[in-house]
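Hi D.,

Good news: the full-assembly prediction came through. Inputs first.
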Amino acid sequence: MRHEGPQGRGRGPGLVLGIDGGGSGLRAVVAAVGGGPALATAKAGAANVRSVPEPVLTERLARVVGRVLPPGRPADVVSVVAGFAGAGVPGRAGDGGQRLAVRALRAALARHGCAPAHLRVAADSEIAFAAAPGCPPDGLAVIAGTGAAATRMRGHRLAATADGCGWLTGDDGSGFWIAREGVRRALRAVDGRGPATLLAPRLAEAFGAPADDPASVRFALVDGALAPADPLRLARHCPLVVRAAADGDAVAGRILDEAADLLAESTAALRPRPGEPLVTVGGLLGPRGPLLDRFTDRVRGWGLAPYPVRDGLHGAVALARAACAGAAGRG
Amino acid sequence: MRHEGPQGRGRGPGLVLGIDGGGSGLRAVVAAVGGGPALATAKAGAANVRSVPEPVLTERLARVVGRVLPPGRPADVVSVVAGFAGAGVPGRAGDGGQRLAVRALRAALARHGCAPAHLRVAADSEIAFAAAPGCPPDGLAVIAGTGAAATRMRGHRLAATADGCGWLTGDDGSGFWIAREGVRRALRAVDGRGPATLLAPRLAEAFGAPADDPASVRFALVDGALAPADPLRLARHCPLVVRAAADGDAVAGRILDEAADLLAESTAALRPRPGEPLVTVGGLLGPRGPLLDRFTDRVRGWGLAPYPVRDGLHGAVALARAACAGAAGRG
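Then the structure:
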């Protein structure tokens, strides 16, 4: 079956392009508009629209698009959806990140001769949610990686956000939050404000200090946490807290319990309806994520069953396909 | 009465010099070694030994010493005690800050011809504690300003510290902590995770945003808190939380209650003994400090009665005098 796409310009079967521009890396996938598995995937470096300069982002997008595009078929690409962390979040006045991403994406596609009829830059939560079975228009997506936010979708679009307020005054229950609480409670143990925990010697060691002397543990923890110019780098120590909890450390276990409570609170703020779709994504709530079971326990009572996804790539493809179906339906 | 001082080099009555090098400013006072009120006081700019370069610190110290020293009497200065935030804190490996402060202080004194027999650079908590009536050798000092720490003194020296771990992973109950919680709970109110609070419109206004639209309030709070390169600048908004609590805002009142709980916890970690001296200092726990009543309520049950002091200047003088008495006693 040949598929002409919304504008009918392609000479081969219509193709859709999905892009996931997470802070940890840029991934692209190409697939047939009518369905079926991915035809090609590729990845490149970080794609945070707030920190990667536009020329670099354009270059990286052009590279991944070039790798997944079947030779000689640029005109067959009828629909492109790209999700970027932070793009399209309500309350982000001006949304400069989204405009930048649209420009970079159009330029990258043009280099390969692509001018798709449908092009959309979406929020990372929008493409993650679209990976839910059947690509439903309405429901919830909860992201918990380095940062954390609960989001509500209406008509495939982000309609409301709870938290996602950044490491200093929000992102409650995120990887950064867990790592910071790990250091905080290790310090409380060291100076007698809190119960003993494996986190004190283990974090001190991770920060490069001998763990045998309380004074140097204290020094290592305070300065180790504050040393990097970017406090977000502290989030790299989240897995250490997860391992300590798995090894039976009660303090570390409580941190993970509280993180799950906070993520459930953010979800509750969006007034969930029993049975509505709930997608979870990110290092903590993706498939086999260390908070997935705890979070599932907490939202089960509200009639919610999390559907964890690894990333937003398949959701981006689903949205790109849905746009074609919508165009066909309207046409 | 003429006082020769420990080395008997002075030709006039012996003088002591007390210096308080807080992060907010450098103050100096000169007084007679035998007792009585201050003869002269002076102040200059910030004196944080970890951020002010040594030549600048030396210059500022020389300036305040020059202003308080009676003309023609450099040799009468027999004892000098200077307290600096962070100097002499156990666990601060290397104590580079203390050595720097000693060098800067000696150089500043030498410029005016002073070479006192006794010179000591102390921690800010050590000079604050020495302001207690009778300059007792043992007891507790709790500091709560931009940062927060509880300390135990033995023989006029810092013997143990609880908290004081810095804004990122400690300083629980400090001015920074209160301001951060203020922004955090304002954000929770805005997106439905927490109860409504005056803090949301007031903080948004303080950050320069119109307070009428939830999306722009949210944006203003997140970016306003994160915008300064130094997150500690957020502590400047602590008084706004204090005012909201005074105006009856329940969320702001709870933040202050929790701050007092945390400061009491830090105090409890030092195992207070009923009736022992407890000095409190800093913007939150000094005379008329906004947490003083709440903190007093919490420690009363342990047989403690806080003695709030405005700064460590008089304690520095008391320590400088005690050193002379000690030398005389030993001689």
